[in-house]
Amino acid sequence: MKHLWGPGVLVALALAVRLGLFQRVFQRVGLDIHIHDAYRVIPLRAIGFWVPLGLAAVWLLVTAYTSARHSP
């Protein structure tokens, strides 16, 4: 049960970013990516939502795998 606190906090952080609680931080800042002579801008709000959500999913998968492996 103690291994579920980390993913829970990451999901809560992702939802807080998505709902706009950190709007002042992520307001007009983005990540520029240069692809084939064109710039694409990914807002930090999107990165701040998807990265913690992906990390929480990976953490849950690793926890599920290790707990299933250690079960008798």
Q: Could you describe the 3D structure shown?
A:
This protein is 58% helix and 17% strand. The protein is of the alpha+beta class. It has one domain (2-70). A two-stranded antiparallel sheet has the order 1-2. Strand 1 and strand 2 (38-43) form a beta hairpin. Helix 1 (5-19) packs antiparallel against helix 2 (44-70).
Give the number of DSSP strands.
2
Shape: elongated
Q: What integer value in Å does the Rg equal?
A: 16 Å
Count of discrete alpha- or pi-helical segments spanning 4 or more residues: 2
Order of H and E elements: HEEH
How can the largest sheet be summarized?
Answer: 2 strands, antiparallel
Mean pLDDT across all residues, rounded? 85
Estimate the strand proportion.
15-25%
Oligomer: single chain
List the strand order in the largest sheet.
1-2
